[in-house]
Every structure is written in structure tokens, then in C-alpha cells.
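Protein: Sarcosine dehydrogenase
Species: Amphiprion ocellaris
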Amino acid sequence: LDILKQKRAKSFTADHKPLMGEAPEVRGYFLGCGFNSAGMMLGGGCGRELAHWVIHGRPEKDMYGYDIRRFHNSLTGNNRWIRERSHESYAKNYSVVFPFDEPLASRNMRRDPFHQVLTEQGCVFQERHGWERPGWFNKDGPAPLKNYDYYGSYDIKKNVNYKYNELLNKEYTFGFPPHHDVIKSECLSCRHSVAVFDMSYFGKFYLTGPDAKKAADWLFTADVNKKPGDAYYLAIGGGVAEHNWNHIRSVLQDQGFRCQLTDHSEDMGMISIQGPKSREVLQEVLDTDLSNEAFPFSTHKVVNAAGHQVRAMRLSFVGELGWELHIPKDSCLPVYNAVMAAGAKHGIINSGYRAIDSLSIEKGYRHWHADLRPDDTPLEAGLAFTCKLKSSIPFQGRDKLEKQKEEGLRRRIVCFTTDEKVPMFGLEAIFRNGVPVGHLRRADYGFFIDKTIGYGYIRNPDGGVVSANFIKSGEFTLERMGVVYKAKAHLKSPFDPENKRVKGIYA
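Structure follows.
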């Protein structure tokens, strides 16, 4: 009986996945725990990867889903987060995993300055890295989050009339969700007029010090030294902020660079104003000339917005004319209110990350750990333009890229569209002339081009180079849940392939 009791002891983690990799707090201390009986199944492969990790500083395969750095440091020491999330991972152990599910446990752990005003406007939030970020906007009113009820266990009263949970339950489908048209409206408002995206969950780091330029040269594949300087502002996708933070700090230490990395993620908010009317809206709010000549694409300035100092960046993750505003915390709401007031006559709306997912895949922008994983290279991912290979500046991984470029790509990412309007989410099989050559990493519906879009890496079954001709000459199909659909392969994004819209050129 004692033996049976011991065997039944479980080690559930916050997401029911193991904890692996180098501990963020202590260099050289590696984790390989939290397998919860799955160690009998995962032990061989995970043990091999952990050994490679210890020896070479990184695993050979994509282990990001098990990497301890997938959790933000503010959460891993928080008893409420550990207790609630570990309970929910146990409660949903055998539940079907639906594409857009969200946790009910440990919500509202990290909230940005816009949280309350967006909640009042019907925002349905997603949880990422502890942050509450906008998912989409419910037109039937607010759907605020409630404290975790442990699904009615432990004599805790179960939440009733919980609108957020009711909306989640409606998404438990592998078809299009019931609010598909709402997300369509958010996307097309951005494409035709203007939309505001709260992206405050981004990591916001400063790299400073006498060796900051040397560190930036080594860390980043792109040439980021257009102007001399010893300081860099890094805005990093919120879900990967902890991973990036630890990677950069490790590189600085290993290379002996004399510089510091400081985290200001909680000190600033960030909104992105995107769409053909974004310039007209922001010209009323910012005290600077926003013309193409005065404020070109991929540049930034510190400016005043409604009397508050902000950093404006002319960038886009949706493929439109637009600017990001990086705003000190106390100035966030006044700046947001000024933007919404100036945009009212243009029909400005709030949009969420469900719209960003659709808009970005339509444009062909890459998402971390879907289109891009640790085992992908920039060349395979179609991002050679981000690598300073034409310069003589050394950077981490340059030798591997030069070798791969010389030998040719044995796999590469390809865009696929289907004329049949079917929902796809990623992991659908890709066939070329009836032979499996890969699977979709990410898929969504593109509302502007009115097609299902997917991106996946394909290989040549013969082991040869995946050339442009190999892609053009094949007949492709995608298999979704046992049904095969004809697909068209694209070497460039089918939406705005000449990249005119981000430059403000609209037909």
C-alpha cells in the first residue's frame, strides 16, 4: 500500500510540462524535473537533449515548450500562481486542447495601464507570460475576469454568470468561432481605416555601457548601427521576454562585454496605431512631421503626444502604415484618450491579438515559436534580409549561415492558401504531388484576401535542395482532419507583395 501511495504522487507543473534547461537564477545549474510520470515516456529524448544543453549551452532540437524560461521570473516565485495553475493543469489533464483556450487560474497577475478602460469596452483578454493582453473585443459588453474557483473543488463556491468563461466555452470548436465576424471587423477596420492595438505586454529592455555597440553587433543578425551610440532600446515580444532576457545576459557574461541590460517592461505601456488613416490621426496628436520624408519607415523619434513625452516608432506587425507609441506608465491613458478622440471621425476602433494573428500571417510576418523556432535559421525562414552577411561584421551564428547559404537550403518556409474557406490552425500535413513534405507551423484566416493562409517548412523527399523551382513545379495539398484540400504555394506573401502599404502607398 505504501508503494502504491508513493507511485501515485504527482509533480504537476503550471502547464503540465516538464521543467528543463539552465536555471535563470544560477548559471550552470540545470533542471530536468516535473515530468509527472511522463518521464517514462520522455526520459530518453529529454535526457539526450539535456546532456547536449549542458555541454553546448543549448539543446539540439526545439525544447522551448519545456524550457524553464517560458515562465516569467515574477510568476515562478508567486505561491498563488503556482498553486492555481498547477491545480488547473491537473483538472484539465485529459481535456481536449482547443486552439484558442485560455486558463482561468492565476489571471490578472500582470496588468498594463490600459487594462481597466479596455475591460469596460468589452475586451476579452488572453494570458501571456502573466500579462493580460487584448484578444478580441466583445460587442455585447464587458467580460471581466474573476478569481479562480478551483472548478468548485475544496468547498469553494463555483463562479456563476461568468461571461468570460461562457465566451471561452463557445470557442471549444475546431471550426470557425461564433465571433469570427467580430475578428473580421477588427481586421478590415485596420486594413481600410485605422485601429489601435494595446501591445504593452512587450518586454522593454535597455542595453547600455561602453561595449553596447560590440554586444549589439554580436547579438543581432541585422546591422543596428546606423547612428553611433552606446545605448539600445529593445522591444521584445512579451511571451518570449524572459527567454530573451536570460539569453542576452548569458551572452554578455560569456563574451565579457562591459554593458548592462535593464528591464523597464513594467514602467511603460505601448500602443500601435495602424491603418491607412493612422497618419491623419497621429498628426493631430504628435508634435512632429509624420510625412515619409520627415519620418521614414523603420525609424523612431522621442516626441510629445498630447503634452506627454513618448517614443514613436514607425513600424508595423500587420502590414500597414502605422506607428508604435512607447509611453511612460503615468502618461498612457492621457495619450490613449487623445488618440481615440483624434481618430473618432475616422472610425477608429480597438483591436486585439486575434486580429494581429490574422493580419500578420496575411502579410507574411513571422511569429516566434510558430514560424520561428530555435532550430530554424533565418535563411530557412525567409529572413536573409535581416542578416548583415554583406558586411564583414561578425555575429553569433554567422559561420553556420554562410555554410548553409553555400550548400543550399534543405528546407524552407512556404506560404500556402486554399480557396475553400476552412479553418486551419497549424500542424496540418503538407503534400507535394501526393508525397508528404512537411506540416503547417501556423495557419489563420486572411480576411482581406478572403482565404485560409498557412505557413510551413517543406523538405525535398530526395534530401536535395528546396529551390524556388521545386516549389513552383509542385502540386500541393493540405490535409485537415483527414480531408485533403488543394493549396497554392507562394514564394511571397499574396497580400501586398511589393510592400507598398507600410510605406504609405495606397492605390
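Remarks: The radius of gyration is 23 Å.
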